[in-house]
């Protein structure tokens, strides 16, 4: 019998420091040490946790968000940079795989970015949320297909999506088709109310069942003081409560530990990797239960870039036909011989090249 493989996973639900990105980083490093002390081999943090999720954009009109948006730029994370170096060092020292959500700054744009660090500190994946949701479109740019991939880590094959990307079935299927074993989900938390938590729970449990993988989900948390700092309007403050469901789900869609829906804490559960085969033996949605000749996914994994460099004209010493495939050159030469026209054709001579 093969050796039984158990992975201990931790999902962190804590509050960020809404005044200082460095303060949030300290909380991340402290939580990492706490989770590792409980034997965790995988530690997951909430969506864009460093420096903080832009809660202000959900409750304030755009005309009033300029100062907070600029402050988010000031504290945002550059990849690679000091924040990634600190988290990588902690992952390496503690021997844990870390999945961290950050606001990434890339020159003049911000992105909702998920970072996967392996247990040796290597940054295995940097992916950006492909479509920011509703108010988030005023804050973040769009990601691309280059990040829709599963990576090999010390705890197995890990894939990740952020928040309502889980409502994009093709994005989920892209990871399923790459045979993810542990799926990381990240949500902001402290938003919308209980209905958000309920919908989140349905979503992550369904993905676990459909993918036949474990799901580790982390949501953020805001204190009452932090909520008041975002907006003094008590009516708007109601939109910044609830919506938390930090959870760890088995491939059979069951909670491995009770979910955390209020307050701060760290959930820890053991993932019995044999449950993946147990589930997929019955239903493998990208294997024996799939019908790729009827339904399949086309994924463009090319990074989206704003500029492509190409020479407008060939160099002076370059044969203008050098870029043509050899087969096409031969075909055109053969056609010229077969058409019965014996008129000297300098083009054919060029195609054939010098005598050898």
Descriptive notes:
Residues 331-345 have a biased composition (Basic and acidic residues). GO terms for molecular function: nitrilase activity. It comes from Methylobrevis albus. Belongs to the carbon-nitrogen hydrolase superfamily. Nitrilase family. This protein is of the alpha/beta class and 356 residues long. It folds into two domains: 6-282, Nitrilase/N-carbamoyl-D-aminoacid amidohydrolase (4-Layer Sandwich), CATH 3.60.110.10; 310-356, no CATH class. It has helices spanning 21-37, 56-59, 66-75, 82-94, 169-176, 194-211, 224-230, 234-237, 274-282, 326-338, 346-352, and strands at residues 6-13, 42-44, 97-106, 109-117, 123-128, 151-153, 156-162, 182-187, 214-219, 247-249, 265-272. Strands 5-4-3-2-1-11 form a six-stranded mixed sheet. Helix 1 packs parallel to helix 4. The protein is globular. It starts with 5 loop residues before the first strand and ends with a helix. Residues 342-353 have low confidence and may be disordered.
Proportion of beta-strand residues? 15-25%
Number of strands: 11
Kindly report the name of the CATH homologous superfamily of the largest domain: Carbon-nitrogen hydrolase
Q: What is the overall silhouette? A: globular
Helix content: 25-40%
CATH topology of the largest domain: Nitrilase/N-carbamoyl-D-aminoacid amidohydrolase
How many domains, in number, for the residues? 2
> Could you say which structural class the secondary elements and strand pairing correspond to?
alpha/beta
Oligomer: single chain
């Amino acid at each position: 019998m093969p050796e039984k493989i158990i992975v201990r996973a931790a999902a962190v639900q804590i509050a960020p420091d809404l005044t200082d990105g460095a303060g949030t980083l300290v909380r991340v490093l402290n939580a990492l040490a706490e989770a590792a002390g409980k034997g965790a081999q995988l530690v997951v943090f909430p969506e864009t946790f460093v420096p903080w999720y832009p809660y202000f954009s959900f409750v304030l009109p755009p005309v009033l968000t300029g100062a907070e948006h600029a402050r988010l730029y000031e504290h945002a994370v550059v990849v690679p940079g000091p924040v990634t170096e600190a988290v990588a060092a902690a992952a390496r020292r503690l021997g844990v795989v870390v999945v961290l959500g950050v606001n990434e700054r890339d020159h003049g744009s911000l992105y909702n970015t998920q970072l996967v660090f392996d247990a040796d500190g290597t940054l295995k994946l940097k992916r950006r949320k492909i479509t920011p949701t509703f108010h988030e479109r005023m804050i973040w740019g769009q990601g691309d297909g280059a990040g829709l991939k599963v990576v090999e880590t010390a705890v197995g094959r890990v894939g990740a999506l952020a928040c309502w990307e889980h409502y994009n079935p093709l994005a989920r299927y892209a990871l399923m088709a790459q045979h993810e074993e542990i799926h990381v989900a990240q949500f902001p938390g402290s938003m919308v109310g209980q209905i958000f938590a309920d919908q989140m729970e349905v979503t992550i449990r369904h993905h676990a069942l459909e993918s036949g993988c474990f799901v580790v989900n982390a949501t953020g948390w805001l204190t009452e003081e932090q909520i008041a700092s975002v907006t003094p309007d008590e009516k708007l403050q109601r939109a910044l409560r609830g919506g938390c469901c930090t959870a760890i789900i088995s491939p059979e869609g069951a909670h491995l530990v009770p979910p955390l829906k209020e307050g701060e804490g760290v959930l820890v559960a053991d993932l019995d990797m044999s449950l993946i085969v147990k589930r997929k033996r019955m239903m493998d949605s990208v294997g024996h239960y799939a019908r790729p000749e009827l339904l399949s996914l086309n994924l463009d994994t090319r990074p989206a870039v704003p500029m492509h460099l190409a020479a407008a004209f060939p160099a002076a010493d370059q044969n203008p036909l050098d870029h043509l495939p050899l087969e096409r050159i031969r075909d055109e030469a053969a056609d010229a011989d077969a058409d019965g026209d014996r008129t000297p054709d300098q083009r054919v001579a060029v195609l054939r090249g010098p005598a050898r």
